[in-house]
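A student in our group prepared the protein record below, which I am reviewing. What it holds is a sequence and that sequence's fold in token form. My question to you is simply how this chain folds and whether the tokens agree. Do not assume that whoever made the record got everything right. I have pasted the whole thing underneath without changing anything:
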Amino acid sequence: MKYYLIAGEASGDLHGANLMKAIKKADGAAQFRFLGGDLMIAQGGELVKHYSDMAFMGFVEVVLNLRTIMKNMRQAKEDMLRFKPDALVLIDFPGFNLRIAEFAKQHGIKVFYYISPKVWAWNQKRVLKIKKVVDHLYCILPFEVDFYRSWGMEVNYVGNPLLDAIADFHPDDQFRQNHQLDERPVVALLPGSRKQEITRILPDMIQTAARFPEYQFVIAGAPNFDASFYDTFMPGTKYPLVFNNTYNLLNIAEAAVVASGTATLETALFHVPEVVVYKGSAISIAIARMVIKIRFISLVNLIMDRGVVKELIQQDCNPDKISDELNLILKDSNYRNEMLENYRSLSVKMGEPGASARTAEMIVRQLTGEN
């Protein structure tokens, strides 16, 4: 069968690639066409648009790039109709994907939504639209099931695909040597994958690193940028930079400073104590504070429903406060151990690997009419 997939950011590329791999096992004749990234390309099929041309962060950035977004949307719609897929598989990225879902529904294409939109965070009434335009919805966070069911929508909880990616991870014993890292303990810097967030957050991370000379700070670079982009943030000391190796970096890290997003959960599942940071434009933050209905921004705290990791948002995201928190997680054994104990509880709550396989099998069964 023919599958058209849309993933609009780095995390979606990871989950999309794992889902494609699982679909190929469930459907040996699977054909793919997609908007995504390098990991999805590696699974085969045809790339239509790379997510690096699609990922815009915050209300202001979306407005400023509206012409590009509409062009991408138009291209996706036209390309999908030419491809004539049996299934449209949408991966997170709701602002874009829900509009594509509505279009697909109008043209009789079955819509499968993997990694359900986080409408519980802000515009809960969007569930009504999701019910109209999505045929099958797959949740990856435990608390989402009750939320969607409270709106009368039947959903499938498939577990979290990060567990699959981490279960498949095999550490590189030569990682330190290959990246010329010395013997100092490592602190990982994960500034995100979008240009806007990296530009706002990385300078604070770099200034923080200068205060901890006894530690080696290593930056996880996003694959859609090259080293020269990161060099602009390091006019003085050059910190090591690694690409496509975040899991190997987390595997050896003593602590991490992480931009809010999927990486906060990945860091916790690697049992690395972390501080979560976020900076948006002033207007975006003001709008967000009016409409967002949740207490936390990090997935770790959202899943645990309590403050497990420190969140430094907007003006609190500065070298002084990041340094204070980093000192605690590196040097206060009681504080550090409490966070690690909470991580163990998080792992239990997350369940077992297999989200990609479970979702792929459901999609194929639902397409073929099997029970």
